Amino acid sequence: MLQITRPNRQRLIQDVRGNVAILFGFAIIPIVLGVGVAVDYGRALLVRERMQTALDAATLSVGSWAGLSEAQMTAKAQEYFNANYPTSSNHFGTRSPLNLSVSGNTLVVSVSGSVPTMFMRLANIDNVNVGASTTVLWGMGTAEVAIVLDNSGSMSGSKIDALKTAANDLVDTLFAGAQNSVLTDPIKIAVVPFAAAVNVGSQNANASWMDTGNANPYHADAQRAYGAPSTTNNFTLLSSLKTSSGAAVTWGGCVEARPMPYDVTDDAGNPSTLFVPMFAPDEPDNWTATTSNCTTGNKCSFACTDGGSSCSSSSSSLVLNGAPPGSFSYNNYLPDAGDGTTTCTSNSFTVSIASPAVFTKTGHGFAAGDQVIFSTTGSLPTGLSKTTRYYVLSSGLTTNNFRVSTTSGGTAVNTSGSQSGTQFVANSFACRSGSANCARTGSSGTTVGQKEQDAFAGKSIPSSLNCKYGTPTNKATVTNITVGGIPGGPNFMCTSAPLLSLSTDKTAIKSAINAMVAQGATGVGEGAVWGWRTLSPGAPFTDGRAYNTKDNTKVMVLMTDGQNTYYPNSKFLKSWYDIYGYIDRNHLGTTSTNSSTLTQYMDQRTLQACNNIKAAGVVIYTVAFQIPGDQAGALDLLNSCASDADKYFAPGTNAELLSAFNAIARDITELRVTK
């Protein structure tokens, strides 16, 4: 039998070398459990973070979706959540369906779930519950949006229809995003259609920011440069015209670009910042006529065969009065000598009843061979006709007196009978100077009369008068013509529908969009600056909030399908009339007649406008719609105009245009996560 002696027993009792193992055995269970709890909770936190991220994305996405019911929002949110929160792996455990509620301008979406444990099962805890909730507020800020849309001729057909659809969808989305806002006027939208020019609305003719006098140096400057009086005013000229039906001609509502640098600014306060109404002057007679269309109604009564005096000839070389070679290159809507019915009181004369008749006008300024016509408020003496072109004779010609014949160098006319009213005389502008741009008469091509530039300015004899436009009380009749497929006349190049300043009226906004028509040239810069002016708190339109208004965003959506265009020609004016007037007047900074050069100069002004707009705090989205590859400059311009790279869109199809506008609308309708 083994016996432990007293000393050995004492040493055994005092020996503690095996206690560590025993104590470790007792302690291992809580240690493992503690580590397991940390691991399981760490997994749960990761799952909850993933759940919260997916829920935030789903809530923001569905919150910016316009026009959904609460049930539809719930379904959409669930779709977005499922796409970002996998359910196939047991690692993420289980989760409940989303719970969505809307109260006022607050959207709340929540979800709950459980994550299976591994170590905590030792303590009979099989799952850890997790949950996430996202709260979004609608209308935490306000937005003012100017939709600036290209309405040029290249937008015709399906393109303008697609644009209307996309723009209407953008409006729907913006209004839907603001429907739960508690703020006043959370969304305001302006619609600015543009072609060559922008139509600011003919109702603004007498607005304080319009030049109703002659303050702006660009007012009728081309006409004044070629001899029209310094007081010539576009509004006055408009008031001196009537349509073929007798109705007064009214201003179409378009304005010229202001003198640099104000063409690309929102400045006001000096004469150069006043806006000049667009008025396309009557340009020199120049088209050919035939016996089939040579009638009194189209002023061919003043035309004749080369060297002849009758419109009854069968010759194909009939030309309108003072017409140089060529056809329809001018915006010609009045006869340069007047139409036989208009009057100009400073142009009156007296005529004797005699054989030959003597015409008296102090300082008349005529030379032998000049061509003249007569008009009257009553009746001319027998022997004279209002529809005949007469030639000044050398015989009897003095400073104040002259005689006329129906042919050049022919027999002086005789008069008889009686006359009534006041008689008037006007030069027929057949080009005495012999300039290449002047008229031809006679089979040998000799030139007589006044030069083409005088015809353009409406000069009479001897002082500069605008008799061919008539007077406000005795209006001249405008001929209906088309120039390059665009309606001619005094409102030439004013083809776009009127803009709508910032409005909260959704119906009015959509009506302005649906009223758009595609016609005319392209002036992207002019569209941009007028979009800016609708957002501005200052004149011309004062609907915009102050630039420093808290939580207010000013946005411009600038869309075009092509490059800036100007139409030069070889005539003395060097171009068609446009927002920068005539190229000859150097309003654009160049007098080049090269189309590419003109586009480059317009692009420079457009880019400067965009830079000025962005500097004022306006966010610019640009849309280059189906711009062809040979117009790379237009693509670069719009890319540079956009506030950021992600705000530039280049849709190539109608469907892509709709997608681009939808993306812009959602970006503008910015929602903020608050919880």
Structural write-up:
- The chain has 675 residues and is an alpha+beta fold.
- The protein has three domains: 28-137; 145-278 and 491-673, 3-Layer(aba) Sandwich (Rossmann fold); 282-489, Elongation Factor Tu (Ef-tu), domain 3.
- It has helices at 6-14, 19-63, 70-84, 158-178, 221-225, 234-238, 452-457, 506-514, 524-535, 595-615, 632-641, 654-668; strands at 94-95, 99-103, 106-116, 127-137, 142-150, 187-194, 241-242, 288-289, 318-319, 348-351, 359-360, 371-376, 390-392, 401-402, 404-405, 423-427, 476-477, 482-483, 486-487, 500-503, 552-560, 618-624, 648-649, 672-673.
- Strands 14-11-10-16-12-13-15 form a seven-stranded antiparallel β-sheet, with no helix packed on it.
- The two termini are 80 Å apart.
Fold topology:
Blueprint: H1 6-14, H2 19-63, H3 70-84, E1 94-95, E2 99-103, E3 106-116, E4 127-137, E5 142-150, H4 158-178, E6 187-194, H5 221-225, H6 234-238, E7 241-242, E8 288-289, E9 318-319, E10 348-351, E11 359-360, E12 371-376, E13 390-392, E14 401-402, E15 404-405, E16 423-427, H7 452-457, E17 476-477, E18 482-483, E19 486-487, E20 500-503, H8 506-514, H9 524-535, E21 552-560, H10 595-615, E22 618-624, H11 632-641, E23 648-649, H12 654-668, E24 672-673
Parallel strand pairs: 5-6, 5-21, 7-17, 21-22, 22-23
Antiparallel strand pairs: 1-3, 2-3, 3-4, 4-24, 6-20, 8-9, 10-11, 10-16, 11-14, 12-13, 12-16, 13-15, 18-19
Helix pairs in contact: 2-3, 4-8, 4-12, 9-10, 10-11
